[in-house]
Please model this.
Amino acid sequence: MGLAFFLPAVPIILLGDFSTSLAALSLLILLVVQDSFLVGAALLFSLVRLRPRPWHFGLRPTKAWPTIGWAVLGFGLIFGFELAYIAILGVTESNVDELGGNAVIPATLVALAVIVVAPVSEELFFRAFFYRALRTRMPVWAAAPIDGLVFGSLHFEGIHTAIILPVIAVFGLGQCLLYERTGSLFAVISVHAVFNTVASLGEAPVPAIAIGACVVTACLVVPRQFPAAPAAIRT
Model:
């Protein structure tokens, strides 16, 4: 269960069988390359207007317990919507564990791709850059749905995935609201990573759980290494 459609369509089409370590490594490399373009584009466009600071992208410390509380609440609401949607429509999702199988090395490589690379790069682009750009021109009630719709549409992998796209769009919208409330990129990265960890559970859950736990822990520790935002926008 979970948002298992964060994997790009092109590597799936090109590589086919992900049961081998080589195929899983190829997925990881291709995802890193693809998402590097997303992050690079965000930084490039940001440099056009001003010299970006870490806090511009939500890379800043926030009050720990309020941030954790909002992250847990956001995860619960979005995950609850997903479960209700799947139950009502009888949707059957394909899980990420099908890609890695039960072999430790391929499962670990796939888990790194979808639990580390995808959450970090996609949240940096869609929430810290794209949503923030929208918010400079429109209110939350308009910017968040637009971000969610774009986020969902870019995960279209064919007609067989269309039925789950509303879940991904709602996930994107919810992430925008969480980012808006906390001002923390780390909050949305942690929620994204937990969703993809759940999606990765199956015959080889240990690598997924271990990597997911590391990402969440990093999201608690790393913010302290960044400078605080100006007092006017602190949470």
About this structure: Residues 12 and 136 are 36 Å apart (CA to CA).
